[in-house]
Structures are given as C-alpha cells and as structure tokens.
Hints:
Elements (H helix, E strand, L loop, with lengths): L1 H25 L22 H4 L4 E7 L5 H19 L4 E6 L6 H6 L6 E8 L2 E7 L10 H17 L2
Amino acid sequence: MKKPILTISLLLFVGVSLLVAMADVTGWRKAPSTQNEPTIAEHAQPTAVADTENARFIAMYFHAPHRCPTCKKIEAYAHDALSSEIEAGNIAWQVADYTADEYKTIVEQCKVFTSTVVLVDRQDGEVVRWKNLEEVWNHTDDPEAFEAFINESWDTFKNAS
C-alpha cells in the first residue's frame, strides 16, 4: 500500500516540477520586468485626434492593442527624439492603435502592419505624403542611434516639402 502512494506522489512531484520548469522557460510564470525598460513619460501619453486636426505634420506612433517592451521603447524613444519639435509646434504627436477602425484608411495607405512611427504631411486636411519609419525596429537596442534615425528622418521629411 505504501509503495503505490509513494510512486504516485513522486510522479506528481515530477509532473509539477516539469510544468514549473516549462513555465519558467516560456516566461509564462515570470512577472513583467520594469527594470531597464523605458517608461512612457506623462507628456508622451496619447494626444487626442482633435489636437492634430489642424497640424500639417504629424508623427504617428502606431501600436497593437497589446504592446511588448520593444513596442513601448519605440513609443518612448520616438517621442523623446521629437519632443523639442513637438513642444515648438513643428510636428504633432499622435498615438494610434493600428487595429482600430478609425485608423483603417491611414493604416492601409501607409502600409502599417506592426508597431511603427509614420511621419505624415497633411495639407487642407488631406494626407499628401507620408513616410513609414519601419527601420525603428533596427535601433531599439541603441537609444542614441534611434534618436539619430528619427531626427534624420524628420529633417529629411520636413525639408522635402
């Protein structure tokens, strides 16, 4: 009688141990880490669409409903890189969920399929040109390179008008 109980107990122990090990490996059990992850500054919170209606230039950060740490970096780094231009009123900042129906037209027009930053030039309320900065993904491990990429892209975009 003691042998089957001991065998079952050991098998349960091994099974639970395997489940815990798999949960650790996949990250399922891990609490979200906030260490070394950028935080979205208070000024980087989504700008209402009404605030961008009259803007000629808009930097749009597109995201999915659920954002990974890298997506959050893209938003924070892009906003920080453009903050002086935003504060000067040279470009408006807008955060948009690319899966939302209200952004369907611009998402299709700018070929947005993942988190990205899109520079938009509007005249008379119509998008006349845009630049999808998909390469932001290549610079997420280097904040200085990210900032340089965003600023160079913005300078080229605004000077081409």
